[in-house]
Write a structure and sequence with these properties.
The chain is α/β, with parallel strands linked by helices. Helices cover 40% and strands 14% of the residues. Helix 7 links the parallel strand 6 and strand 7.
Length: 300
């Protein structure tokens, strides 16, 4: 099937999204604009934005909205950033407090222009949220910092509740799908994070539909487990614009279910697997599930 034919293939029923732009969605969008904050929900055109925002959950995107990389799956703007907003961590914390969050997810664009890749801003944001919301768990979804492990330590020393870094795809397709990021470097980041803070769960994600084979997905799972990764998310890749990678296939929900079983058999504490799953989708539930596996108790 040609790329043009794939683009014309209609999305299956299981990828239909309920649009709900009233209530919590409208309120949250207004607050984000008022505080000059960015969310990956908007910038990456996440299919779950309406559901999540209606439920007053969002993934904050710090360090601006211009990424120094141009990954072929991602809709975030690419270019050379011109700003570093040191007041941003406090505004994120204010928004989290205003939303009354119990679990806050913070990610960023890649900032290869900064010596530490933005690690210090991540740490400031974690501490600012904790100061305002001591009972709120904080998850960070970080870039690879170009292998700067001192930068990684800055983030880990701020003690996030979850350290997330996505490998995105299988080894064979990594260079095709991602810009500058390296498959083995991502695994090394997860391994070092676990060495630095063994008590902090690590998490990673895969997107399907870009040409991967079944055995390659299982190999990626094994690689992640060898790096000590605790939580895995698996979702369907959706082409954000015609200029991005085409969708090779739409993966059936039954296959996602089977992959969840494979992941659990391999020892992941929690596997979130489904067509619309993204890194932060049901993130609070992922934390509680992983905690229950570890401690034998469930949270509130």
């Amino acid at each position: 099937m040609s790329a043009r034919e794939r683009q014309k293939t209609p999305k299956p029923d299981w990828l239909r999204i309920r649009l709900a732009t009233d209530g919590g969605y409208a309120e949250l969008k207004s607050m984000m604009r008022a505080k000059a904050l960015h969310t990956v929900c908007e910038e990456a055109r996440c299919p779950n934005i309406y559901e999540c925002w209606a439920n007053r959950t969002a993934t904050f995107m710090i360090l601006g909205d211009i990424c120094t990389r141009a990954c072929r799956f991602c809709a975030v703007k690419t270019g050379m950033p011109t700003e570093l907003d040191l007041a941003e961590p406090e505004r994120v914390a204010e928004a989290a407090e205003q939303m009354g969050l119990r679990h806050c997810v913070v990610t960023s664009v890649a900032r290869d222009d900064l010596a530490d890749g933005g690690a210090s801003i991540f740490a400031m944001t974690i501490r600012a949220i904790r100061k305002r919301l001591p009972l709120c768990s904080v998850e960070v979804l970080i870039p690879d910092f170009q292998g700067n492990w001192d930068a990684l330590r800055v983030v880990m020393d701020a003690k996030p509740d979850i350290l997330n870094h996505n490998i995105e795809t299988v080894r064979r397709l990594s260079d095709k799908v991602r810009a500058k990021a390296k498959y083995d470097r991502s695994l090394e980041l997860l391994r070092r994070a676990k060495e630095m803070r063994p008590e902090i769960p690590t998490k990673s994600g895969l997107m399907l539909g870009v040409g991967e084979e079944w055995h390659e997905i299982l190999e990626a799972m094994d690689d992640l487990r060898a790096a000590g990764c605790d939580i895995l998310t698996i979702g369907q890749y959706l082409q954000p614009t015609p200029n991005h990678l085409p969708v090779e296939r739409y993966v059936h929900p039954d296959e996602f279910k089977a992959l969840k079983e494979e992941g659990l058999k391999r020892g992941f504490r929690h596997v979130e697997s489904g067509p619309l799953v993204r890194s932060s989708y049901h993130a609070h539930e992922q934390v509680l599930s992983a905690m229950a596996v570890t401690t034998g108790r469930t949270g509130e």
